């Protein structure tokens, strides 16, 4: 059985984002293969993908290492998201399916309910799923991929403080979905831009405050059920 490289890539990326692999630390194929229970071949392919995405760099005499982004690079990511997410929402208003709308509306209902209860951890997960679904609804694989990479990188570089008003934030999500459902691309774009501006204010660089140390992996990489 050959484990797909994209599964290994996802596992390594998730652990980089979670801080399991520290910035600047070496990523040796042998150690990673042992950690994730795979051969070195999918690890090698995964590292190439992660290098193309900007999570990994290859250094002379050291090999593959976790990248060490600068504050300027991190700031650029937030600016890129501010430009691309409104575009994605405008495209979603033109191209979304009923299935996308059903998922988005369900997430908004859950988010508004959790916001009223003050369940912050649930809200972060639901917010991620909301923006992922909205990106998929734009029906542009390249734009969806770019938005997904931006979210991964921003989650890696930034800690997000609790929004001052989660109820208001989820009301904004609901308004975006209403605009998408009506096919109003310009309103979806404007609402998403405004929502992004407010959300960006809650981001704080992780590595500007001395870092958070190495954390334990959030999940065991169970690949036993994967097939060719």
What does this molecule look like?
The chain has 228 residues and is mostly helical. Helix content is 65%, strand content 6%. The protein has 9 helices and 4 strands, in the order H-H-H-E-E-H-H-H-H-E-H-H-E. The strands form 2 sheets. A two-stranded antiparallel ribbon has the order 1-2. It has a two-stranded antiparallel sheet with strand order 3-4.
Rg computed from alpha carbons, rounded to a whole number of angstroms: 19 Å
Q: Bin the strand percentage.
A: 5-15%
Question: What is the strand arrangement across the widest sheet?
Answer: 1-2
Head-to-tail CA distance between termini: 6 Å
Mean pLDDT: 88
The CATH topology of the largest domain comes to Four Helix Bundle (Hemerythrin (Met), subunit A)
Shape: globular
Unreliable stretches: 209-228
Count of structural domains: 2
What share of residues is helical? 55-70%
GO molecular function: DNA binding; DNA-binding transcription factor activity
Organism: Streptomyces monashensis
Keywords: DNA-binding, Transcription, Transcription regulation
Domain HTH gntR-type: 2-69
Secondary structure layout:
Elements: H1 5-18, H2 29-36, H3 40-53, E1 56-59, E2 63-66, H4 71-95, H5 98-117, H6 120-137, H7 141-157, E3 158-160, H8 166-182, H9 185-200, E4 203-205
Antiparallel strand pairs: 1-2, 3-4
Helix pairs in contact: 1-3, 1-7, 2-3, 4-6, 4-7, 4-8, 4-9, 5-6, 5-8, 6-7, 8-9
Task: Give me some keywords for this one.
two-stranded antiparallel sheet; 9 helices; 228 residues; 65% helix; Four Helix Bundle (Hemerythrin (Met), subunit A); mainly alpha; 2 domains; two-stranded antiparallel ribbon
């Amino acid at each position: 059985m050959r484990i797909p490289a994209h599964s290994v890539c996802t596992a390594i990326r998730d652990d980089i984002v979670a801080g399991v692999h520290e910035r600047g630390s070496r990523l040796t194929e042998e150690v990673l293969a042992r950690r994730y229970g795979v051969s070195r071949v999918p690890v090698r392919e995964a590292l190439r993908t992660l290098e193309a995405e900007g999570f990994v760099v290859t250094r002379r005499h050291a090999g593959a290492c976790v990248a060490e982004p600068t504050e300027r690079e991190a700031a650029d990511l937030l600016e890129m998201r501010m430009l691309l997410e409104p575009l994605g929402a405008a495209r979603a208003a033109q191209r979304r399916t009923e299935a996308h709308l059903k998922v988005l509306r369900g997430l908004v209902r859950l988010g508004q309910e959790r916001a009223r209860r003050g369940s912050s951890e649930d809200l972060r997960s639901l917010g991620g799923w909301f923006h992922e679904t909205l990106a998929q609804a734009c029906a542009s694989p390249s734009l969806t991929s770019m938005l997904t990479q931006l979210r991964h990188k921003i989650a890696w570089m930034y800690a997000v403080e609790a929004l001052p008003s989660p109820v208001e934030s989820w009301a904004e999500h609901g308004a975006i979905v209403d605009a998408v459902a009506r096919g109003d691309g310009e309103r979806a774009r404007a609402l998403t831009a405004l929502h992004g501006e407010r959300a960006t204010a809650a981001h704080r660089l992780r590595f500007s405050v001395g870092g958070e140390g190495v954390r334990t992996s959030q999940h065991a990489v169970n690949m036993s059920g994967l097939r060719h």
